[in-house]
Each structure stands twice: as structure tokens, then as C-alpha cells.
Design a protein that fits this description.
By secondary structure, the protein is of the alpha+beta class. It contains nine helices and 22 strands. Strands 7-8-9-3-10-11 form a six-stranded mixed sheet, sandwiched between helices. A six-stranded mixed sheet has the order 14-13-12-16-22-15. Strands 2-1-4-5-6 form a five-stranded antiparallel sheet, with helices on one face. It folds into two domains: 233 residues, 3-Layer(aba) Sandwich (Rossmann fold), CATH 3.40.50; 115 residues, OB fold (Dihydrolipoamide Acetyltransferase, E2P). A hairpin with a 2-residue loop joins strand 4 and strand 5. Helix content is 24%, strand content 35%. It is globular, with a radius of gyration of 22 Å.
């Protein structure tokens, strides 16, 4: 069940051109600044906007073909959407909200209720079934909205900034839930987000839109590890080292990186250690003292960045970046190709589950 997209649109001073595929069970993250064309792309996929030319196909079914005059209406495409706001029907309970899709598709009342119960259980919201949206927190409402989207058995799932409206406490839990749920889906999923962590945790592949053009596209890990555009380099500003979850962190090749689990991780499954370049120190010799992660690598570049110098390094199984003062660089006397130790305290490292895997800085 592969989604194939090739579209072009021009409106006043804005133009969008995009060509990509999303395979069954794959999550494609679309990143880009405001005005890049992310929402326009979702509107085209949903059938709410017709481009000047293009084709959209899913599993051999043509949803859009401007040359042949085909444009399947939104309600016949089988698209499920989870947006920033839950947009639940305020007069219905959570259970009835979730049952709405199956009922609209012709399922009987009992069958629809059973489907709703199943999906509320999947998103850990069974206890919320009898509540109306006004009595739900932001995180709870988003769980119910996800269950509603999936209960309709969409052929294409679209996630439009699904965590943007949640507070800092609710977002990690819902992100972890999405990771678990999407891992079991066989439909293509398109995720629009401004947060690189969403791509790290949820996406198998990453597509970067800039001024209506695809400037980078590929496996999440590869795009973030070797960004070609300044925008991508900025959003990939975090260190992201992917490996296998262990009891207190992540095993990345020969290194074991300790940290705190921000979202639920399962030992033996894919996970990533995430930390800021400002949290990394550079040493000539292996550091001792307070508990910290020490990673041996080679300096690949020195980049002046205002008041700091970004020291980029290559590890046996990834890349790393450290922001240090010019005085520290001078004292260390490091240059490209030097062997050094990169150190970061465990308290500064966040551990996340990952979908497609991601590493880079």
C-alpha cells in the first residue's frame, strides 16, 4: 500500500513542487519553516486543494490526476487526520467520538462501540470513554483524537503538528504513545512537524521543505547526520546517537551512553541518546571525576559560532558536536583529525525510543 505523490502548485508568490513515496507501514516526517508548504501539501493529500498539475496514488488507486481530470473527494479517500487540536465533537462522549468513524462507514452500533473500546484501550484511554471533551486534559483529548482517527481504518494517516499544542509534561507521553501505535500500523503515515524530536522518535524517513521545494530527503538518520542545507543543520542542532536501549541508557556500537528516559523505552529495542552540543566538553585525555559519558572520537571540523566554537567529531558509530569557548579550544590546541574525548553528564542526556533511527548533530 504505497502512497505516490507528484504535485506542482503556484499561488501568487508561493510555489510548491513535491515528489515522493511513502511505503506501507512507513512514517515520513515533513519538516520546514513556516510558509514552506507543509500544510499545503497535506491539503492536497486530503483532497481539500487541487494543484495546478500532479498525481496522487495509493495502492494503485488514483486519487488525483490533473491530466485525466480525476479528483476523488475527501470523504472517499479514506484519510485519517490528527491535528494540533483534538477537534472532538463537544456534545459526544470520548467513546462516541471514537465510534463516529465506524458508524459513518456503515458499522452497526454494537460493532462501532466494540471498535471504539479496542482503540481507546490501544491508546490507554479506556477510563475516559464516558467523559465529554470539556472534561479532558490536552494530552487526554489528543489520545482520544488518535483513537478516533485510527478507528475509521484510514488508508492514509496524516499527523499535522500533533504535539504542538501540548504542554511540556504531556508531549513526551503522547509522543511515546504515537511511537508504539504507529509501529503496528500498515498504512502509510505523513507527519508534519516543526520538532526534530518528533522525526527522531516517529519517522523512518525525513523530507525537508524549503520555499516549496524539497531540499533534502532520505532516511531520518542519514539526513540529520549529514545535512546539506543550513536550515536542516539548524534543526539537527541536537546530538542524536542511535542504538539499542539498555537498562540505563543506549548502547551505540562500542559505547554505552547513560541518561534519563524521557519516554518509555524497552531494553533491546531501537533508542537514541539526545543531548545539546552545549552539554558536551572536549578533553585530550579520558576525563575522570563526576559520573559522565566519555566518547572517544576524532575532530572533523571547527566552526566559529559567535561566542563559541562548535567542535564537530566523528565517532565509530555516529557523529557528535560540542560547543566550547575559543579559549578552551586554544588551551586544548585541537585541530582537524585530532583524537579527543567528548564528555557529557548523564543528567544532560535524554533517552527516546526511535522508529527509523537517527543520529547526527
Amino acid at each position: 500500500m504505497t502512497l505516490r505523490v507528484e504535485v506542482a502548485l503556484r499561488r501568487a508568490e508561493f510555489a510548491l513542487r513535491a515528489e515522493f513515496e511513502v511505503a506501507a507501514g512507513e512514517v515520513l516526517a515533513v519538516l520546514g519553516p513556516n510558509g514552506a508548504g507543509k500544510s499545503t501539501l497535506l491539503s492536497i493529500l486530503a483532497g481539500e486543494l487541487v494543484p495546478d498539475r500532479g498525481r496522487v496514488e495509493l495502492d494503485g488507486d488514483t486519487w488525483l490526476d490533473t491530466e485525466r481530470g480525476i479528483n476523488v473527494p475527501t470523504h472517499r479517500r479514506g484519510v485519517g487526520l490528527l491535528a494540533q487540536q483534538a477537534l472532538l465533537f463537544p456534545n459526544l462522549t470520548a467513546g462516541d467520538n471514537v465510534a463516529f468513524g465506524p458508524r459513518a462507514a456503515g458499522r452497526g452500533k454494537e460493532a462501532a462501540r466494540a471498535i471504539a473500546e479496542q482503540w481507546l484501550s490501544e491508546v490507554d484511554a479506556t477510563a475516559l470513554a464516558a467523559r465529554r471533551p470539556g472534561r479532558l486534559s490536552g494530552g487526554q483529548a489528543q489520545r482520544v483524537a488518535l483513537a478516533r482517527a485510527l478507528a475509521a481504518e484510514p488508508r492514509l494517516l496524516m499527523l499535522d503538528e500533533p504535539l504542538a499544542a501540548l504542554d511540556v509534561d504531556a508531549a513526551p507521553a503522547v509522543r511515546g504513545l504515537l511511537h508504539q501505535v504507529l509501529r503496528g500500523q500498515r498504512t502509510p503515515t505523513v507527519l508534519v512537524t516543526h520538532d526534530v524530536l518528533d522525526a527522531v522518535v516517529l519517522a523512518d524517513r525525513l523530507l525537508v521543505l524549503l520555499d516549496g521545494e524539497i531540499v533534502e530527503q532520505g532516511p531520518t538518520r542519514e539526513v540529520l547526520a549529514r545535512p546539506r542545507e543550513p536550515f536542516t543543520a539548524r534543526i539537527a542542532g541536537l546530538n542524536l546517537l542511535a542504538g539499542e536501549a539498555v537498562e540505563d541508557g543506549v548502547a551505540v556500537g562500542e559505547h554505552r551512553i547513560s541518561g534519563r528516559a524521557v519516554e518509555e523505552v524497552v531494553p533491546g529495542e531501537a533508542a537514541a541518546a539526545v543531548f545539546a552540543p552545549s552539554a558536551v566538553a572536549v578533553h585530550r585525555e579520558r576525563p575522570g571525576g563526576s559520573p559522565r559519558n566519555a566518547l572517544r572520537g576524532r575532530v572533523s571540523a571547527l566552526e566559529p559560532r559567535g561566542d563559541v566554537v562548535r567542535v564537530r567529531g566523528v565517532l565509530p558509530d555516529g557523529a557528535i558536536a560540542a560547543d566550547v569557548t575559543p579559549a578552551a579550544v586554544a588551551e586544548l590546541g585541537v585541530t582537524s583529525n585530532d583524537e579527543v574525548w567528548f564528555a557529557v553528564k548523564a543528567a544532560e542526556v535524554a533517552i527516546h525510543p526511535v522508529s527509523g533511527g537517527s543520529s547526527g548533530a
